[in-house]
Q: What sequence folds into this?
């Protein structure tokens, strides 16, 4: 079985597990809805800039919670079983792909609920959806790898935040900048450059994660 | 290599050179302020000029002129020396400028044979009452004084920076040293993953620790510099400050991560993986993101490196050795810390 097939099988395994348990997705959805409700009850009238920041903060925390589950969800023995069967690179890639998909669904849902309760100031939908896609990719790459590191320690949840947030800040900053451009009130003609930078950061961190993961999994 | 003496011995004279030369070479003469910054055509006026680091009373002759680029010159009619740092200059402006603009910006040069010349670039504005560039070209006559006197060896005078320009030899090389130390830590982490040698892990740990200290010193020197020039220790609008602070947080997390494991082999392996990942993330934070936004730092808005505008050859003569000196010092401290950790380990083993 070559690596691409392995990735595909593992990816389907993740999806099947998710559909059987509906544990991650329902928990996260509950989190997103309740956070947005809290925002709604305290902020009735957000201008585009605040709307943007609030949206990304909610997405950021939802992503951390989603990705934390990627390695702690399964028991150590079943993980050992996978590692003995397949290439470790296939494992991390499949988890990253699965998390990207999950976060993509989640972020679009969050955007939907958010615009339902707070209204949607988005003007340039194409740009905003590109931002959401790049956010899903970047958060998934970073947090999947960080969760692989922190799952090795006992107190993994707090370690996840300590290790993850500083690393993800450049991605968040570029995201806020790109999506700000999709809202009324600001226009930057060089925004394509920022999109390329965001993609480059995602790929750079992804490349580093892929190279380092084979050293990480063995216990 | 690390037990060799020569590079440690090299580091001492380099740093002595950096500190002594960097703190003792005087600034070039400069102009700090004028009593007025505007004048009208046809006016004859006297302006008092405050200069910095000059000795007008020791000079035989003090000269001054207004200059637009290298084309228009108005030499002073009279220069009266009040004391070493204050002169009064009388200018007589022609009735028309050879220009179709309402106003033109001029630079002020003050020159004497003792100190050499100093310049206040583009601050002085001459306004035209009537605009007639054709008559202006006829009426205008450049009045200039021969060549400028030469300056001695000195650092450039920059308004706003003044003497703090010497911080270039501390603030900037400390960041370079930090990056080299982090690079060394990444290399040792890489070697640990290949060889599983605990010794490599210790080297990575000490280099990260010293790199972190250098980074903190870089922030402290930067804060002092910011207070002197921008008027505040910390500003959230300045991207570089915040990005480097976050980069240091990433490396603080490295030590938190180390403490989360009791098993030595596991700790070393996971710390090594994180260290390499952190280096990539820190490079993005320090070298990519600040280029994207405006910054108060020199060469801002696209290029945080030192351009020819900010550096001159005298500064470079100290700046480059400073980078080498501080980096070597960093690695020297790291080797001492490394040996201290080794001794501590042996001591604890004997206790058991």
A:
């Amino acid at each position: 079985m070559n690596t691409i097939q392995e990735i595909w099988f593992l990816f389907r395994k993740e999806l099947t597990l998710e559909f059987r348990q509906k544990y991650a997705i329902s928990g996260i959805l509950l989190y997103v809805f309740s956070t947005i409700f809290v925002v709604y009850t305290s902020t009735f009238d957000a201008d585009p800039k605040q709307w943007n920041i609030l949206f990304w903060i909610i997405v950021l925390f939802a992503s951390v919670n989603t990705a934390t589950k990627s390695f702690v969800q399964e028991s150590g023995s079943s993980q050992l079983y996978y590692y003995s069967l397949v290439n470790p690179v296939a494992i991390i890639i499949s988890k990253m792909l699965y998390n990207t998909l999950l976060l993509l669904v989640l972020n679009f849902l969050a955007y939907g609920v958010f615009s339902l309760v707070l209204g949607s100031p988005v003007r340039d939908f194409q740009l905003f959806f590109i931002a959401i896609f790049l956010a899903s990719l970047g958060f998934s790459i970073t947090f999947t790898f960080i969760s692989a590191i922190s799952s090795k320690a006992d107190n993994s949840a707090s370690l996840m935040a300590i290790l993850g947030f500083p690393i993800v800040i450049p991605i968040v900053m570029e995201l806020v900048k790109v999506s700000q451009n999709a809202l009324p009130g600001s226009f930057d003609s060089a925004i394509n450059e920022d999109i390329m930078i965001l993609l480059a950061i995602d790929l750079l961190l992804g490349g580093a994660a892929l190279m380092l993961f084979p050293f990480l999994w063995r216990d | 290599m690390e037990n060799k003496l020569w590079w440690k011995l090299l580091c001492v004279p380099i740093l002595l050179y950096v500190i002594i030369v960097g703190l003792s070479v005087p600034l070039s003469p400069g102009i700090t302020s004028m009593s007025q910054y505007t004048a009208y055509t046809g006016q004859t006026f006297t302006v008092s000029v405050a200069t910095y680091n000059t000795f007008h009373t020791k000079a035989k002759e003090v000269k001054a002129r207004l200059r637009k680029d290298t084309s228009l010159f108005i030499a002073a009619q009279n220069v009266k020396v009040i004391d070493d740092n204050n002169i009064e200059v009388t200018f007589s402006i022609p009735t028309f400028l050879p220009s179709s603009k309402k106003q033109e910006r001029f630079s002020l040069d003050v020159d004497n044979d003792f100190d050499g010349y100093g310049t206040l670039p583009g601050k002085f504005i001459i306004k035209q009452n009537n605009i007639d560039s054709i008559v202006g070209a006829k009426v205008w006559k450049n009045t200039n004084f021969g060549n400028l006197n030469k300056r001695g060896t000195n650092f450039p005078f920059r308004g706003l920076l003044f003497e703090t320009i010497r911080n270039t030899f501390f603030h900037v090389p400390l960041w370079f040293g930090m990056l080299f130390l982090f690079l060394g830590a990444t290399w040792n982490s890489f070697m640990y993953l290949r060889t599983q040698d605990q010794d490599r892990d210790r080297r990575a740990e000490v280099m990260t620790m010293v790199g972190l200290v250098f980074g903190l010193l870089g922030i402290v020197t930067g804060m002092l510099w910011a207070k002197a020039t921008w008027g505040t220790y910390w500003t959230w609008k300045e991207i570089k400050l915040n990005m480097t602070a976050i980069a240091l947080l990433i490396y603080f997390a490295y030590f938190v991560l180390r403490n989360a494991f009791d098993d030595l082999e596991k700790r070393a392996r996971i710390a090594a993986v994180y260290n390499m990942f952190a280096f990539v993330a820190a490079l993005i934070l320090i070298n990519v993101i600040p280029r994207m936004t405006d910054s108060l730092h020199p060469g801002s808005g696209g290029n945080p490196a030192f351009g020819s505008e900010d550096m001159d050859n005298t500064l470079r003569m100290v700046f480059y050795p400073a980078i080498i000196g501080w980096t070597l010092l960093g690695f020297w401290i790291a080797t001492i810390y490394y040996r201290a950790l080794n001794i501590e380990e042996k001591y604890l083993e004997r206790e058991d």
Q: What stands out?
A: DSSP finds seven helices and nine strands in chain B.
